[in-house]
């Protein structure tokens, strides 16, 4: 009785150990060909398909370019898809043979590495194919090589040469006519260079456009001072090479105080910029006379700081 119990316990331990071991579904490797018989130089297709668990790593088989007098003409890329928790790999090979006879497409070995398990190998099926030569009827006699036969030609065989010649003659005639017609005709003079506005001209033009808008007259005071100070700052930036558009009012007035040409107009610049700041940011309502003064100060500043052009008079002695 004790012996039976010991045996029973031993079997239970074995079963428990077996159940505790990880189980893996062995990959499925399928291979098939679309022809068992080809003519020399013809091609057949070998399709390989492998199906594994998606958590399992599959090392694809190394397929040589030639084997057993057969040649792999093309190796398709390995396509991968997933279906029902399985990873499916597919590849297509084009194989040909240049010698006649019976040849074997060997099996290819794949390596599978389970997640947390030991790697193992699995092989595809092998196939035997027949490569045949083109059948020749040996009962018929060999025929001699036929000499070159002269083919009769007509004008239609040269139609493209004729059309090409006519087109070339027409082109030559047009070129001769064009040069004879335009012989002695002078080319028109080049257009005068386009005038480039100076900073002064640009500022005065923009001031005129601003005046014609009559913004402060229609209660658009903030917009009026915004455009007026933009014109002034842009002029200072271009005329005196100073980043006036990026400076605050205090910073710009400090630059003006240190600049020889702008220092003369420091008070006018202070009136323009400070009045504009009050109208734009403090929502103040300057008087109509202040609007006019800011405009006149800006125009006078642009006119007064216009660069002078010095011409040198040379006299012959």
Could you describe the 3D structure shown?
The structure is a single chain. The protein is α+β, with helices and mostly antiparallel strands and 317 residues long. Among the domains are: 28-132, Immunoglobulin-like; 199-304, no CATH class. Helix content is 39%, strand content 21%. α3 (199-213) packs antiparallel against α8 and α4 (221-240) runs parallel beside α8 (288-304). It starts with a helix and ends in a 13-residue tail after the last helix. The model is unreliable at 18-23 (pLDDT under 50).
Shape, please? elongated
Average residue-wise pLDDT: 84
Distance between the first and last residues' Cα: 147 Å
Number of strands: 12
SSE sequence, one letter per element? HEEEEEEEEEEEEHHHHHHH
Uncertain segments are 18-23
Provide the β-strand percentage band: 15-25%
Structural class, judged by helices and strands? alpha+beta
| Number of helical segments with 4 or more residues | 8
Specify the biggest β-sheet: 6 strands, antiparallel
Integer-rounded radius of gyration: 48 Å
**Residue share in helix:** 25-40%
Strand-helix topology:
Layout: H1 2-20, E1 28-33, E2 37-39, E3 43-53, E4 57-59, E5 66-67, E6 70-75, E7 79-83, E8 86-97, E9 101-105, E10 109-113, E11 120-123, E12 127-132, H2 159-181, H3 199-213, H4 221-240, H5 249-258, H6 260-263, H7 266-281, H8 288-304
Parallel strand pairs: 2-12
Antiparallel strand pairs: 1-3, 3-8, 4-10, 5-6, 6-8, 7-8, 9-12, 10-11
Helix pairs in contact: 3-4, 3-8, 4-7, 4-8, 5-7, 7-8
């Amino acid at each position: 009785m004790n012996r039976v119990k010991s045996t029973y316990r031993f079997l239970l331990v074995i079963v428990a150990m077996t159940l505790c071991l990880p189980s893996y579904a062995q990959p499925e490797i399928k291979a098939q060909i679309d022809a068992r018989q080809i003519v020399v130089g013809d091609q057949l297709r070998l399709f390989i398909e492998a199906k594994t668990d998606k958590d399992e790593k599959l090392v694809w088989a190394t397929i040589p370019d030639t084997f057993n007098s057969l040649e792999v003409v093309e190796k398709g890329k390995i396509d991968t898809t997933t279906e029902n928790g399985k990873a499916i790999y597919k590849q297509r090979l084009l194989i040909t043979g240049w010698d006649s006879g019976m040849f074997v497409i060997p099996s290819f070995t794949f390596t599978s590495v389970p997640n947390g398990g030991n790697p193992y190998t699995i092989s595809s099926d092998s196939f035997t194919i027949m490569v045949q030569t083109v059948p020749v009827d040996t009962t018929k006699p060999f025929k001699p090589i036929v000499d070159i036969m002269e083919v009769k030609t007509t004008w239609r065989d040269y139609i493209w040469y004729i059309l090409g010649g006519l087109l070339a003659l027409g082109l030559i005639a047009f070129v001769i006519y064009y040069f004879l017609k335009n012989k002695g005709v002078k080319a028109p003079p080049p257009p005068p260079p386009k005038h480039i506005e100076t900073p002064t001209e640009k500022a005065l033009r923009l001031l005129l456009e601003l005046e014609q808008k009559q913004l402060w007259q229609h209660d658009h005071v903030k917009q009026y001072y915004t455009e007026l100070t933009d014109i002034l700052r842009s002029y200072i930036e271009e005329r005196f090479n100073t980043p006036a558009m990026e400076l605050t009012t205090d910073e710009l007035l400090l630059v003006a105080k240190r600049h020889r040409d702008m220092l003369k107009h420091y008070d006018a610049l202070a009136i323009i910029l400070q009045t504009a700041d009050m109208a734009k940011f403090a929502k103040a309502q300057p008087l109509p006379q202040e609007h006019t003064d800011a405009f006149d100060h800006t125009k006078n500043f642009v006119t007064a700081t216009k660069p002078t052009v010095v011409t040198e008079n040379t006299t012959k002695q």
